[in-house]
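In practice, a research group might receive sequence data for several interacting partners and want a quick structural hypothesis before committing to experiments. The following worked case mirrors that situation: the sequences arrive first, and a predicted assembly follows.
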Amino acid sequence: MQTKGAIALITGGARGLGQAISCHLQNCGATVIVWDRDAEALRQIPTTMDGLQVDVTHPLEVKAALSTVLEKHGRIDILVNNAGLIYSEPLFNLMNPESPIHDYTRFRNTLTANLDSVFIVTSAIVEQMIQRRTRGVVVNISSISAQGNEGQTAYSAAKAGVNAMTVTWAKELGRWGIRSNAVAPGFIDTESTRSALTESSLKHITSNTPLRRLGMATEVAQAVTTLIENDFINGAVLNVNGGLTI
Amino acid sequence: MDKRLSEILAAIFRLREDEIKPDLKKADVGRWDSLTQMDLVVSLEKEYSIVLGIGDIVGMVSVAHIVDALKKNGVQLAN
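A structural hypothesis for the assembly, expressed as tokens:
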């Protein structure tokens, strides 16, 4: 699929990695629609993008937002499921004064934000793609944590689920000409990475990465366009991590 | 039954062509599940250059229903 001329929806596209993906897709010639729950961040996206405040964990809200988008743009060719949140807590958490066990509510919330949201948005949009016979593409933003990352039970589980859905949808939707792929970033130099990790952790990660540096958000965005534009890539989870997992 | 339609349905349901009859129902065909239904729709649309509506797709639960849906969409079939 050519990015140029396509209509692309990016969830969580107003900040950080999502913003880099939104900008890259627009630079490649796509019409960009950004869904984000952060109203302030949405106010700062370029006026050439179409921003909408949406909480992608609410099916009815997603349905209403989708109607608005279809009314204006008629179809969606590209869906990038980027919205989510990073949450770190080990299963046995000695730092929790109330109980040493991972907080269950936070476990559920992390899955809702990172896994349920992908299901909710994709199911709504794929229905529209099939009804319109749009030969679209879904790109899910996974994570290196999908392979299991100590201290991130919930986040790792959610991202592993995203990978599993990516492959399942590739198998199910291929017959409709709809492709499903994922990008699994490693440690990318973004505000959220720097706020989630200590300076010594970042140094440790960098020294263990064969390329000896953090990734750049634009490099993740480039991986997204590769998965969009190569029509024979389907069901792939593309690692963008500087070789950290090899 | 239309010869070409019988060939398509036999291939999708993995049956012999002589087993494809109007009264053949989804419940009678072990392989006729929701994924096969998608293959069915895609094959019919490609063969007859049509686009089936969601109502037609959901309603195709027997060979007779498939024939009805195709005719409704302007496909001419031999008896």
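Before designing any experiment, note the following. The radius of gyration of chain A is 18 Å. The mean pLDDT of chain A is 96.
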